Amino acid sequence: MKISKLLGTLFCLLFVQNIALAQIKPTVKSYPKETPKSAAFIGNSFFYFNNGIISNLAPMVAEGMKGSPWRQSMITISGSGFDWHDVDSYFRPNAIGKYSFDAQNNVVINPAQKPLFDVSILMDCSQCPIHPQMKSVFTEYAKKHSDTVRRHGSVPVFFMSWAYKDKPDMTLPLADAYTSAGNDNGVLVIPVGLAFAKSIALKPDLELYAPDKRHPSAAGTYLSAATTYATLFNRSPVGLKYSAGLNPEMALFLQQVAYDTVKEYQKP
Q: Options 3.10.290.10, 3.40.50.2000, 3.90.1300.10, 3.40.50.1110; which CATH number does 2-266 get?
């Protein structure tokens, strides 16, 4: 039993090392402007499962970036790819974020923001970047959306999604597709897919997936948010008290995986 456990540990370490060595390396390694104060997550159900990645990210930002304002929105379409989104329309005046509600449930018209979002985090459908019929669309719209976002004064960022639970061989092709698109368009990439692979290699019993083997579990969404936090703010999430209801020990493990993955991904 001890020998098999040791072999399993060695396999995991080699798997993680191979990911780090095989992947294309990013040329953009940090958020190119001052610390962002607002974000739009433009994508699909991978963002909105478990009450959304933003429900995990906001408490992390509030705790780790004390005093820094933070505003966020999700603009998602179930099953959507890059080409489903009319990104230009998301920046039109008097639309997204026009109003909110105060403590007395009164409608409050929010002041116009320019840019509407400091950062726009973009994700394609779960297999589109590597699908034979869709990868050219991914390449086309990675450029198109990056240009659109910049034209509105926002910063584009790509969200590298993860492999399906039963198809781990998707990990490196997805990583390379997103990294190549990031390099081609001068865009920072959040390496969530690599964080999933690292967590699975180190702690395979920690369930990152919903029963459909594609969408994230609560732990998967937490890992996504922690990796986003580490990438956008160039800070370690390790030690944050917010755990999204997860076991604190599990949350700490996922925080460490997120931070280590970002640093390994960005290392020359």
A: 3.40.50.1110
